[in-house]
Amino acid sequence: MLIDTHCHVDQFPRPEEIVRDCEAASIRVVAVTNLASHFAIAAERLKGLRMVTAALGAHPLAAREALREMDTFRRLAPNANFIGEIGLDFSKHGAATRGIQERVFDEVLAAIKNRQRFITLHSRGAEKEVLDGLRRHGIGSAVFHWYSGPESLLDEVFSDGHYLSFNPSMLESAKGQRLMARTPKDRILAETDGPFVKVAGVVARPSDIALVYRAMAGLWRVEPKEANARAAENFERIAGATR
Question: Are strands 163-166 and 52-54 parallel, antiparallel or unpaired?
């Protein structure tokens, strides 16, 4: 079984097709959402399925809407085992809402800190601030999705018990390859971030996660199935604790 730990299934033109394909091919997918209201819809539509699970999100680039939906987020949080996409974005894309983002992120962490959950994080331009927030609320074993921050911070990320997830786009850059090489085998996960990543000019689908596992296998000089098994073990270490 392949595992895609971060995919925006609801952002595809035909989400039901993605879900159907993943169920048929036994591809495990964490279907992240951008707002609590989106999660409520996705969770209802995915109810009873084995492979695709909705994650409760409050995306930093939707901070204004997320703030208006915080009561809904808090209401849904107790029963949500998967959280994401949450975090901060202090790049030029999110600079205008920095203060709102910080408030939303703090309220989100307060709402989910009471027990273990699978948490996938956005941290562009705000890696240290995201890490500090996790520390402030006592949250461990979260996943930094598409990490693009300073390599010098990685030791702190890993020593605090967190993980990095890699997508096909990251593997095309020298920095992404260095980050993968620096990530311990027991702290690595795979994602597609579809449909916001492209593979050979085509929007990435969950099945493209195989490219990441092949890259892991090449780096570690093992068979792809061993890389798959290692990443699955890492995923289960977090997700299994939510049951």
Answer: unpaired
